[in-house]
Amino acid sequence: MRLETLSPWVRWGAVALLQLVLILLPLAERWSVHATGQEVTLALRPIDPRDLLRGDYVILNPEIGRISRDQVGSGTDLAAFGLGDTVWTVVERDVEGIFRAVDVLPAPPQDGRVALKGHAGSPANGDELRVDYGLSAFFVPQGKGKDIETLPREQVRLVVAVTGSGRSAPLRLLANGKVLLEDSAF
């Protein structure tokens, strides 16, 4: 059957279906992370809460985005990671319930430890590595960004879902243990 012989309705329907699939794929990915991921609480510092074109949001700076030599195992060479390299940051819960970086690996850990998949940022100088996990923005209702920006950084936490493959998505923004905002899967 040739494309020219198909009804215009069938051709337009196929185009509409393709567009719908392209829209639903990222939503399905996000829903999958929310549904199957383990909850991990990260310490962070919110900065710069507004975007004139998109409304209020908080740019988040997770503490695990800057990993120092002191945090990782002695066998880890931070200088070995180049700009854009995929890395897995292994995190462990401390006494406060906050997950902190304890190691950076070039491949996912095989021992069941929780690890967030990210990309190496600015090249490491041997003492520090910057990592981007795609968790840098959290959209908030209009007018709330400034309130969140003024909170002391030690009070603000981000709860994310982390899958076994290292994918992560934000779930909630906390202040002093209380939910400020929740992010939906859609």
Runs with pLDDT <50, length 5+? none
Q: Helical amount among residues, as a percent range? A: 10-25%
Element-level helix/strand string: HEEEEEEEEEHEEE
Oligomer: single chain
Count of DSSP E strands? 12
First-residue to last-residue Cα separation:
39 Å
Radius of gyration, CA atoms, in whole angstroms: 20 Å
How would a textbook summarize the main sheet? 7 strands, antiparallel
Structural class: alpha+beta
pLDDT average, as an integer?
A: 80
> How many H/I helices?
2
Shape type: globular
Strand content: 35-45%
Secondary structure layout:
Blueprint lengths: L7 H29 L1 E10 L2 E2 L3 E8 L3 E3 L17 E8 L5 E7 L9 E6 L7 E5 L4 E3 L5 H5 L6 E7 L5 E8 L2 E5 L4
Antiparallel strand pairs: 1-3, 1-10, 2-3, 3-9, 4-8, 5-6, 5-7, 7-8, 10-11, 11-12
What does this structure look like?
- The protein is an alpha+beta fold.
- 18% of the residues lie in helices and 39% in strands.
- It contains 2 helices and 12 strands, in the order H-E-E-E-E-E-E-E-E-E-H-E-E-E.
- Strands 1, 2, 3, 9, 10, 11 and 12 form a 7-stranded antiparallel beta sheet that branches.
- A hairpin with a 3-residue loop joins strand 2 and strand 3 (55-62).
Task: From the structure above, extract its key features.
2 helices; alpha+beta; 7-stranded antiparallel β-sheet; 186 residues
